Protein backbone atom coordinates (compact mmCIF):
# COMPACT_ATOMS: atom_id res chain seq x y z
CA UNK A 1 0.00 0.00 0.00
CA UNK A 2 2.62 2.52 1.06
CA UNK A 3 5.73 3.63 -0.77
CA UNK A 4 8.66 2.44 1.41
CA UNK A 5 11.34 4.97 2.04
CA UNK A 6 14.80 4.19 3.35
CA UNK A 7 15.92 6.56 6.02
CA UNK A 8 19.42 7.88 6.58
CA UNK A 9 19.96 5.47 9.44
CA UNK A 10 19.17 2.57 7.13
CA UNK A 11 15.77 1.77 8.68
CA UNK A 12 12.95 1.78 6.16
CA UNK A 13 9.49 2.88 7.20
CA UNK A 14 6.26 3.50 5.37
CA UNK A 15 5.61 6.72 3.55
CA UNK A 16 2.04 7.40 2.46
CA UNK A 17 1.31 9.70 -0.46
CA UNK A 18 -1.97 11.54 0.05
CA UNK A 19 -3.85 13.48 -2.64
CA UNK A 20 -5.71 16.37 -0.99
CA UNK A 21 -8.77 17.75 -2.79
CA UNK A 22 -10.19 20.50 -0.53
CA UNK A 23 -12.61 21.77 -3.25
CA UNK A 24 -15.46 24.07 -2.16
CA UNK A 25 -16.97 26.03 0.73
CA UNK A 26 -15.56 25.00 4.10
CA UNK A 27 -13.65 22.16 2.36
CA UNK A 28 -10.34 24.10 2.25
CA UNK A 29 -10.76 25.18 5.90
CA UNK A 30 -11.32 21.67 7.26
CA UNK A 31 -8.87 19.88 4.95
CA UNK A 32 -6.22 22.47 5.90
CA UNK A 33 -6.93 21.67 9.55
CA UNK A 34 -6.78 17.93 8.81
CA UNK A 35 -3.40 18.19 7.08
CA UNK A 36 -2.02 20.24 9.99
CA UNK A 37 -3.10 17.61 12.52
CA UNK A 38 -1.88 14.69 10.38
CA UNK A 39 1.54 16.31 9.95
CA UNK A 40 1.77 16.87 13.69
CA UNK A 41 0.78 13.26 14.35
CA UNK A 42 3.32 11.86 11.85
CA UNK A 43 6.10 14.03 13.27
CA UNK A 44 5.29 13.06 16.85
CA UNK A 45 4.76 9.35 16.22
CA UNK A 46 7.93 9.22 14.13
CA UNK A 47 7.14 5.76 12.74
CA UNK A 48 5.71 6.69 9.32
CA UNK A 49 5.80 9.60 6.89
CA UNK A 50 3.04 11.42 5.08
CA UNK A 51 3.37 13.54 1.96
CA UNK A 52 0.51 15.63 0.63
CA UNK A 53 -0.16 16.95 -2.85
CA UNK A 54 -2.91 19.50 -3.19
CA UNK A 55 -5.28 19.50 -6.18
CA UNK A 56 -7.31 22.59 -7.08
CA UNK A 57 -10.23 20.60 -8.58
CA UNK A 58 -13.33 22.47 -7.41
CA UNK A 59 -16.24 24.59 -8.59
CA UNK A 60 -13.80 27.47 -9.28
CA UNK A 61 -11.80 25.05 -11.50
CA UNK A 62 -15.06 24.08 -13.24
CA UNK A 63 -15.94 27.71 -13.96
CA UNK A 64 -12.51 28.21 -15.49
CA UNK A 65 -12.13 24.94 -17.43
CA UNK A 66 -15.73 23.78 -18.04
CA UNK A 67 -15.07 20.53 -16.15
CA UNK A 68 -14.33 19.53 -12.59
CA UNK A 69 -11.52 17.11 -13.39
CA UNK A 70 -8.80 17.11 -16.03
CA UNK A 71 -8.94 14.12 -18.39
CA UNK A 72 -6.02 12.33 -16.72
CA UNK A 73 -7.33 12.86 -13.15
CA UNK A 74 -8.01 9.19 -12.41
CA UNK A 75 -4.55 8.12 -13.62
CA UNK A 76 -3.04 10.86 -11.45
CA UNK A 77 -5.04 9.76 -8.40
CA UNK A 78 -4.15 6.08 -8.86
CA UNK A 79 -0.53 6.96 -8.01
CA UNK A 80 -1.54 7.95 -4.46
CA UNK A 81 -2.12 5.76 -1.42
CA UNK A 82 -5.27 7.66 -0.41
CA UNK A 83 -7.36 10.73 -1.20
CA UNK A 84 -8.42 13.30 1.40
CA UNK A 85 -11.47 15.16 0.13
CA UNK A 86 -13.25 18.27 1.49
CA UNK A 87 -16.67 19.05 0.03
CA UNK A 88 -18.08 20.00 -3.35
CA UNK A 89 -21.01 22.32 -4.03
CA UNK A 90 -21.35 25.97 -4.92
CA UNK A 91 -24.44 28.22 -4.71
CA UNK A 92 -24.13 29.20 -8.39
CA UNK A 93 -23.77 25.66 -9.81
CA UNK A 94 -26.58 23.08 -9.76
CA UNK A 95 -25.79 20.43 -7.12
CA UNK A 96 -26.18 17.53 -9.54
CA UNK A 97 -23.48 19.03 -11.78
CA UNK A 98 -21.00 19.48 -8.94
CA UNK A 99 -21.67 16.13 -7.25
CA UNK A 100 -21.48 14.10 -10.45
CA UNK A 101 -18.65 16.25 -11.82
CA UNK A 102 -16.26 15.71 -8.92
CA UNK A 103 -17.16 13.39 -6.06
CA UNK A 104 -19.03 10.69 -7.95
CA UNK A 105 -16.63 11.05 -10.88
CA UNK A 106 -13.93 9.78 -8.52
CA UNK A 107 -15.85 7.24 -6.37
CA UNK A 108 -17.52 5.35 -9.19
CA UNK A 109 -14.62 4.67 -11.60
CA UNK A 110 -12.26 3.96 -8.70
CA UNK A 111 -14.75 1.29 -7.55
CA UNK A 112 -15.02 2.70 -4.05
CA UNK A 113 -18.11 0.61 -3.54
CA UNK A 114 -18.17 0.51 0.25
CA UNK A 115 -18.95 3.74 2.05
CA UNK A 116 -18.22 3.46 5.76
CA UNK A 117 -19.79 5.90 8.21
CA UNK A 118 -19.00 5.40 11.87
CA UNK A 119 -20.96 7.50 14.35
CA UNK A 120 -20.72 7.75 18.10
CA UNK A 121 -21.22 10.26 20.87
CA UNK A 122 -17.70 11.58 21.44
CA UNK A 123 -16.52 12.03 25.04
CA UNK A 124 -17.24 15.57 26.16
CA UNK A 125 -20.14 16.05 23.73
CA UNK A 126 -23.87 15.52 24.07
CA UNK A 127 -26.46 13.74 22.03
CA UNK A 128 -29.73 15.64 21.60
CA UNK A 129 -31.38 12.40 22.78
CA UNK A 130 -32.27 12.61 26.46
CA UNK A 131 -30.17 10.23 28.54
CA UNK A 132 -28.03 8.99 25.62
CA UNK A 133 -24.45 8.68 26.91
CA UNK A 134 -21.21 7.91 25.07
CA UNK A 135 -21.39 4.14 24.50
CA UNK A 136 -25.18 4.10 24.07
CA UNK A 137 -24.84 5.27 20.47
CA UNK A 138 -21.89 3.62 18.72
CA UNK A 139 -22.73 2.61 15.17
CA UNK A 140 -21.12 2.06 11.82
CA UNK A 141 -23.29 2.53 8.77
CA UNK A 142 -22.17 0.74 5.59
CA UNK A 143 -23.57 2.46 2.54
CA UNK A 144 -23.66 0.92 -0.93
CA UNK A 145 -21.63 3.43 -2.92
CA UNK A 146 -21.63 2.35 -6.55
CA UNK A 147 -25.15 1.65 -7.77
CA UNK A 148 -28.67 1.58 -6.31
CA UNK A 149 -30.62 4.82 -6.50
CA UNK A 150 -27.49 6.80 -7.47
CA UNK A 151 -26.48 4.56 -10.38
CA UNK A 152 -27.06 7.40 -12.80
CA UNK A 153 -29.56 5.51 -14.96
CA UNK A 154 -32.43 7.57 -16.30
CA UNK A 155 -33.19 10.55 -18.41
CA UNK A 156 -35.58 13.32 -19.34
CA UNK A 157 -37.59 13.73 -22.48
CA UNK A 158 -40.06 16.38 -23.69
CA UNK A 159 -38.35 18.82 -21.32
CA UNK A 160 -40.65 21.62 -20.20
CA UNK A 161 -43.71 20.19 -21.94
CA UNK A 162 -46.78 19.20 -19.90
CA UNK A 163 -46.06 15.58 -20.91
CA UNK A 164 -42.45 15.69 -19.78
CA UNK A 165 -41.00 12.43 -18.45
CA UNK A 166 -38.09 12.10 -16.01
CA UNK A 167 -36.69 8.87 -14.57
CA UNK A 168 -34.02 7.85 -12.09
CA UNK A 169 -33.86 4.08 -12.23
CA UNK A 170 -32.47 2.21 -9.22
CA UNK A 171 -29.99 -0.44 -10.27
CA UNK A 172 -29.27 -3.43 -8.06
CA UNK A 173 -26.92 -6.10 -9.35
CA UNK A 174 -26.30 -9.40 -7.58
CA UNK A 175 -22.57 -8.73 -7.94
CA UNK A 176 -22.88 -5.25 -6.39
CA UNK A 177 -25.11 -6.31 -3.51
CA UNK A 178 -23.12 -9.46 -2.75
CA UNK A 179 -19.77 -7.68 -2.48
CA UNK A 180 -21.25 -4.93 -0.32
CA UNK A 181 -23.06 -7.34 2.03
CA UNK A 182 -19.87 -9.36 2.41
CA UNK A 183 -17.97 -6.21 3.35
CA UNK A 184 -20.72 -5.19 5.80
CA UNK A 185 -20.83 -8.58 7.53
CA UNK A 186 -17.02 -8.57 7.75
CA UNK A 187 -17.24 -5.14 9.40
CA UNK A 188 -19.85 -6.43 11.87
CA UNK A 189 -17.63 -9.43 12.66
CA UNK A 190 -14.69 -7.12 13.40
CA UNK A 191 -16.65 -5.20 16.07
CA UNK A 192 -17.14 -6.52 19.60
CA UNK A 193 -20.93 -6.98 19.36
CA UNK A 194 -20.83 -8.86 16.02
CA UNK A 195 -24.29 -7.58 15.16
CA UNK A 196 -25.73 -6.14 11.95
CA UNK A 197 -29.07 -4.68 10.87
CA UNK A 198 -29.93 -4.92 7.18
CA UNK A 199 -32.05 -1.93 6.14
CA UNK A 200 -34.52 -2.51 3.33
CA UNK A 201 -37.76 -1.36 1.76
CA UNK A 202 -38.71 -4.63 0.13
CA UNK A 203 -42.39 -4.20 0.98
CA UNK A 204 -42.71 -1.36 -1.55
CA UNK A 205 -39.68 -1.91 -3.80
CA UNK A 206 -40.48 -5.43 -4.85
CA UNK A 207 -37.64 -6.24 -7.23
CA UNK A 208 -34.27 -4.73 -6.40
CA UNK A 209 -34.80 -4.77 -2.67
CA UNK A 210 -36.26 -8.27 -2.60
CA UNK A 211 -33.03 -9.41 -4.24
CA UNK A 212 -31.13 -7.23 -1.71
CA UNK A 213 -32.84 -9.14 1.14
CA UNK A 214 -32.18 -12.53 -0.47
CA UNK A 215 -28.50 -11.79 -0.97
CA UNK A 216 -28.26 -10.52 2.63
CA UNK A 217 -29.70 -13.83 3.87
CA UNK A 218 -27.26 -15.80 1.69
CA UNK A 219 -24.28 -13.81 2.94
CA UNK A 220 -25.51 -14.10 6.55
CA UNK A 221 -25.25 -17.88 6.11
CA UNK A 222 -21.49 -17.46 5.68
CA UNK A 223 -21.23 -15.51 8.96
CA UNK A 224 -22.82 -17.77 11.60
CA UNK A 225 -21.05 -15.83 14.36
CA UNK A 226 -22.75 -12.55 13.34
CA UNK A 227 -26.27 -11.86 14.64
CA UNK A 228 -28.42 -10.11 12.06
CA UNK A 229 -31.87 -8.65 11.70
CA UNK A 230 -33.79 -6.81 9.00
CA UNK A 231 -35.56 -3.47 9.28
CA UNK A 232 -37.69 -1.41 6.92
CA UNK A 233 -36.07 1.99 6.42
CA UNK A 234 -38.99 4.00 7.79
CA UNK A 235 -39.11 1.95 10.97
CA UNK A 236 -35.34 2.23 11.18
CA UNK A 237 -35.56 6.01 11.76
CA UNK A 238 -37.70 5.45 14.85
CA UNK A 239 -35.40 2.73 16.18
CA UNK A 240 -32.37 5.00 15.75
CA UNK A 241 -34.07 7.67 17.85
CA UNK A 242 -35.82 5.52 20.45
CA UNK A 243 -33.45 2.57 20.90
CA UNK A 244 -29.98 3.70 19.79
CA UNK A 245 -28.30 1.13 22.04
CA UNK A 246 -30.00 -1.72 20.14
CA UNK A 247 -27.94 -1.01 16.99
CA UNK A 248 -24.33 -1.65 16.02
CA UNK A 249 -23.43 -2.23 12.34
CA UNK A 250 -26.03 -1.09 9.80
CA UNK A 251 -26.03 -1.80 6.06
CA UNK A 252 -28.26 0.12 3.66
CA UNK A 253 -28.63 1.20 0.04
CA UNK A 254 -27.00 4.29 -1.41
CA UNK A 255 -30.04 6.54 -0.83
CA UNK A 256 -31.25 5.04 2.43
CA UNK A 257 -27.80 5.20 4.05
CA UNK A 258 -27.24 8.73 2.76
CA UNK A 259 -30.29 9.88 4.70
CA UNK A 260 -29.84 7.64 7.75
CA UNK A 261 -26.21 8.72 8.20
CA UNK A 262 -27.11 12.42 8.39
CA UNK A 263 -29.72 11.48 11.00
CA UNK A 264 -27.07 9.42 12.79
CA UNK A 265 -24.64 12.37 12.80
CA UNK A 266 -27.29 14.69 14.24
CA UNK A 267 -28.22 12.12 16.91
CA UNK A 268 -24.54 11.91 17.87
CA UNK A 269 -24.39 15.69 18.28
CA UNK A 270 -23.60 17.35 14.94
CA UNK A 271 -23.04 16.82 11.23
CA UNK A 272 -19.70 18.54 11.95
CA UNK A 273 -18.20 15.44 13.61
CA UNK A 274 -19.12 12.65 11.20
CA UNK A 275 -16.51 10.98 8.94
CA UNK A 276 -16.90 8.86 5.84
CA UNK A 277 -14.61 6.52 3.92
CA UNK A 278 -15.19 5.60 0.29
CA UNK A 279 -13.36 2.28 0.13
CA UNK A 280 -12.24 0.00 -2.64
CA UNK A 281 -11.98 -3.11 -0.44
CA UNK A 282 -9.97 -4.89 -3.17
CA UNK A 283 -7.29 -2.19 -2.71
CA UNK A 284 -6.77 -2.05 -6.46
CA UNK A 285 -7.51 1.68 -6.33
CA UNK A 286 -6.84 4.31 -3.67
CA UNK A 287 -9.74 4.96 -1.31
CA UNK A 288 -11.17 8.39 -0.59
CA UNK A 289 -11.80 9.88 2.85
CA UNK A 290 -14.03 12.89 3.56
CA UNK A 291 -16.22 14.45 6.20
CA UNK A 292 -19.91 13.65 5.67
CA UNK A 293 -20.92 17.29 5.57
CA UNK A 294 -21.10 19.48 2.46
CA UNK A 295 -19.72 22.92 1.60
CA UNK A 296 -21.79 24.69 4.32
CA UNK A 297 -22.23 27.99 2.44
CA UNK A 298 -23.75 29.64 5.52
CA UNK A 299 -20.49 29.43 7.51
CA UNK A 300 -17.86 29.45 4.74
CA UNK A 301 -14.96 31.79 5.46
CA UNK A 302 -16.12 32.54 9.01
CA UNK A 303 -13.48 30.34 10.61
CA UNK A 304 -16.04 28.42 12.68
CA UNK A 305 -16.37 25.16 10.72
CA UNK A 306 -16.01 22.14 12.98
CA UNK A 307 -12.83 20.32 11.91
CA UNK A 308 -13.62 17.22 14.03
CA UNK A 309 -15.33 15.38 11.15
CA UNK A 310 -12.15 15.80 9.10
CA UNK A 311 -9.94 14.74 12.04
CA UNK A 312 -12.00 11.58 12.50
CA UNK A 313 -11.85 11.10 8.71
CA UNK A 314 -8.05 11.42 8.92
CA UNK A 315 -8.03 8.75 11.63
CA UNK A 316 -10.12 6.44 9.43
CA UNK A 317 -7.65 7.04 6.59
CA UNK A 318 -4.68 6.15 8.78
CA UNK A 319 -6.44 3.02 9.96
CA UNK A 320 -7.12 1.93 6.36
CA UNK A 321 -3.45 2.57 5.50
CA UNK A 322 -2.45 0.23 8.34
CA UNK A 323 -1.55 2.81 11.01
CA UNK A 324 -4.19 1.65 13.48
CA UNK A 325 -2.36 2.79 16.61
CA UNK A 326 -1.91 6.32 15.27
CA UNK A 327 -5.57 6.34 14.22
CA UNK A 328 -6.79 5.35 17.69
CA UNK A 329 -4.54 7.91 19.32
CA UNK A 330 -5.70 10.70 17.02
CA UNK A 331 -9.37 10.09 17.82
CA UNK A 332 -8.54 9.82 21.50
CA UNK A 333 -6.81 13.23 21.37
CA UNK A 334 -9.83 14.72 19.59
CA UNK A 335 -12.16 13.37 22.30
CA UNK A 336 -9.90 14.78 25.03
CA UNK A 337 -10.08 18.21 23.40
CA UNK A 338 -13.89 17.93 23.30
CA UNK A 339 -13.81 17.01 26.99
CA UNK A 340 -11.85 20.20 27.68
CA UNK A 341 -14.80 22.11 26.17
CA UNK A 342 -12.78 23.32 23.18
CA UNK A 343 -15.52 22.87 20.58
CA UNK A 344 -17.11 24.91 17.79
CA UNK A 345 -20.58 26.48 17.83
CA UNK A 346 -22.36 23.47 16.29
CA UNK A 347 -21.38 21.54 19.45
CA UNK A 348 -22.44 24.40 21.70
CA UNK A 349 -18.98 25.94 22.10
CA UNK A 350 -17.28 29.18 21.13
CA UNK A 351 -13.97 27.96 19.70
CA UNK A 352 -12.85 28.60 16.13
CA UNK A 353 -11.59 26.02 13.62
CA UNK A 354 -8.01 27.13 14.30
CA UNK A 355 -8.42 26.97 18.09
CA UNK A 356 -9.75 23.40 17.94
CA UNK A 357 -6.96 22.44 15.52
CA UNK A 358 -4.27 23.93 17.75
CA UNK A 359 -5.74 22.23 20.81
CA UNK A 360 -5.66 18.83 19.05
CA UNK A 361 -2.03 19.45 17.97
CA UNK A 362 -1.08 20.35 21.55
CA UNK A 363 -2.83 17.26 22.87
CA UNK A 364 -0.95 15.08 20.35
CA UNK A 365 2.34 16.69 21.34
CA UNK A 366 1.64 16.38 25.05
CA UNK A 367 0.62 12.72 24.98
CA UNK A 368 2.62 11.16 22.24
CA UNK A 369 6.03 12.80 22.36
CA UNK A 370 8.67 10.30 23.21
P1 LIG B 1 -24.07 20.95 4.49
O1 LIG B 1 -23.54 19.74 5.16
O2 LIG B 1 -23.10 21.72 3.69
O3 LIG B 1 -24.70 21.93 5.60
C1 LIG B 1 -25.82 21.60 6.39
C2 LIG B 1 -25.77 22.41 7.69
O4 LIG B 1 -24.76 21.86 8.54
C3 LIG B 1 -25.42 23.87 7.48
O5 LIG B 1 -26.15 24.67 8.39
C4 LIG B 1 -23.95 23.93 7.81
O6 LIG B 1 -23.50 25.16 8.30
C5 LIG B 1 -23.82 22.85 8.88
N1 LIG B 1 -22.48 22.25 8.85
C6 LIG B 1 -22.00 21.40 7.91
N2 LIG B 1 -20.74 21.08 8.18
C7 LIG B 1 -20.39 21.74 9.29
C8 LIG B 1 -19.19 21.81 10.05
N3 LIG B 1 -18.07 21.13 9.73
N4 LIG B 1 -19.18 22.61 11.15
C9 LIG B 1 -20.28 23.29 11.51
N5 LIG B 1 -21.44 23.24 10.84
C10 LIG B 1 -21.49 22.48 9.73
O7 LIG B 1 -25.29 20.47 3.60
P2 LIG B 1 -26.19 21.28 2.53
O8 LIG B 1 -26.45 22.66 3.04
O9 LIG B 1 -27.30 20.39 2.22
O10 LIG B 1 -25.31 21.36 1.22
C11 LIG B 1 -24.48 22.47 0.86
C12 LIG B 1 -23.72 22.11 -0.41
O11 LIG B 1 -22.83 21.02 -0.15
C13 LIG B 1 -24.61 21.67 -1.57
O12 LIG B 1 -24.04 22.17 -2.75
C14 LIG B 1 -24.50 20.15 -1.55
O13 LIG B 1 -24.71 19.56 -2.80
C15 LIG B 1 -23.08 19.99 -1.10
N6 LIG B 1 -22.81 18.69 -0.44
C16 LIG B 1 -21.64 18.09 -0.76
C17 LIG B 1 -21.27 16.93 -0.14
C18 LIG B 1 -19.96 16.33 -0.48
O14 LIG B 1 -19.13 16.94 -1.12
N7 LIG B 1 -19.68 15.11 -0.07
C19 LIG B 1 -22.12 16.30 0.88
C20 LIG B 1 -23.32 17.06 1.19
C21 LIG B 1 -23.64 18.21 0.52
MG1 LIG C 1 -25.31 13.02 2.27
Question: Mind sketching the topology for me?
Answer:
Elements: E1 5-6, E2 12-13, E3 15-23, H1 27-45, E4 49-54, H2 59-65, H3 73-77, E5 82-87, H4 95-107, E6 114-120, E7 138-144, E8 148-157, E9 165-171, H5 174-190, E10 195-200, H6 208-221, E11 227-232, H7 233-242, E12 249-252, H8 254-267, E13 275-279, E14 287-291, H9 308-321, H10 324-339, H11 353-368
Parallel strand pairs: 3-4, 3-5, 5-14, 7-12, 10-11, 10-12
Antiparallel strand pairs: 1-2, 6-7, 6-13, 8-9, 13-14
Bound molecules: 1,4-dihydronicotinamide adenine dinucleotide (NAI) and magnesium ion.
Residues 26, 30, 87-89, 95, 99, 103, 271-272, 290, 293-299, 305-306, 309, 344, 346 line the site of 1,4-dihydronicotinamide adenine dinucleotide (NAI).
Keywords: Magnesium, Manganese, Metal-binding, NAD, Oxidoreductase
Pfam family, one: Iso_dh
Catalytic activity: (R)-malate + NAD(+) = pyruvate + CO2 + NADH
